[in-house]
Inverse folding.
DNA sequence: GCATTATAAGTGAACGCTCACTCACAACAA
DNA sequence: TTGTTGTGAGTGAGCGTTCACTTATAATGC
């Protein structure tokens, strides 16, 4: 039998690019097939539907990223080290695969309500990191939801700025600055 | 002649709600007409196309918001006062008309490339406020693009958190906290 | 080695359906 | 009457999806 893994990979790559640049609804299966150099029908050998392609692309990668963040938490003992490593990971992810990062963290808000398990959610991982730091007295106590989103804003918005050409790449060069900003905001 | 202004207002209101909750592409003209209590054809008495409705809704309101922010800059002499008033304005806007705020600042990224005049762009207004403060020595000098986006992240991401139910409304109650966070980040 | 068989991968014209948009007409106000 | 607003069945382009068919390759028996 023939090996379709290369085709699948090409579909992934082109789908991400088009979904991010044009939007999911604005990308037709015809567009996608043409960009990937395959026939329309071929896409349905690999995915049940356009929608399942979108969902698979989102959920699997979202889960993996959340698990990477979780692994970082376990690897570092205290809050400043965890924060620094987490932010570096965000920056590295953006620089390595900007389309995937944008798809997961900046554009696919519609998919978020379908994510069920909290452990597979990057936002949840960050909030848990903050709650843990508050319990240990490493940062000042206040609304964890607010603190998590302040922190998240300091990471995600620079990524947006980079997308719009308001900030020079790579994002990683600002990792240390962003980390310091987070620590100041959380009054460490 | 008959007065269509009430109809136009109803279209605005329902369109915003559906565009934000479902997405622009996922909202059909039929949906819209039904929600607004009018026939499909009536929508075309007021707008050339669905697309022109989206663009009109975005550009006119985007412009007005940018001008309100500009007015605030002129009203306050120094950076801390400007920042505080600007952030309060963001929060008030979100609390007053969450659908419009979300449409302009959180979901309609696709429309941004079409905005031409810099003066009618909220992001640009904030960046200019920062550049001005750097020149006066009110805050530490560094990349204005990065600084503007760090600040913006501290305002927009809490709004996102509120949308997802991770933060309790109203947003205005956090205005002071967010302002303080901005000042810390900018090392005032 | 060399046929034979099995099966997954790839194809693209065709299909049913939904969509944004149109238009002939009605209702209303000036 | 005259111009504006409202109507909703009608239209055709474009969408996601299907399916009968072809092609490539792995597995099997000789």
């Amino acid at each position: 039998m023939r090996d379709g893994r290369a085709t699948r990979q090409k579909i992934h790559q082109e789908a991400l690019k088009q979904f991010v640049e044009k939007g999911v609804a604005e990308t037709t299966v015809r567009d996608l097939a043409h960009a990937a150099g395959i026939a329309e029908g071929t896409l349905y050998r690999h995915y049940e539907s356009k929608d399942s392609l979108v969902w698979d692309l989102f959920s699997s990668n979202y889960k993996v990223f959340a698990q990477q963040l979780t692994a970082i938490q376990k690897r570092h003992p205290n809050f400043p080290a965890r924060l620094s490593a987490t932010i570096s990971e965000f920056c590295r992810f953006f620089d390595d695969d900007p389309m995937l990062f944008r798809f997961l963290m900046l554009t696919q808000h519609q998919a978020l309500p379908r994510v069920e398990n909290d452990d597979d959610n990057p936002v949840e991982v960050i909030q848990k990191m903050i709650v843990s730091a508050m319990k240990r007295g490493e940062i000042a106590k206040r609304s964890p939801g607010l603190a998590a989103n302040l922190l998240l804003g300091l990471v995600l918005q620079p990524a947006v700025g980079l997308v719009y050409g308001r900030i020079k790449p790579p994002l990683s060069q600002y990792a240390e600055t962003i980390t310091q900003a987070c620590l100041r905001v959380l009054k460490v």
About this structure: Residues 1-3, 28-30, 40-41, 44, 49-51 of chain A lie near DNA strand D (CB under 10 Å from a C1'). The mean pLDDT of chain A is 95.
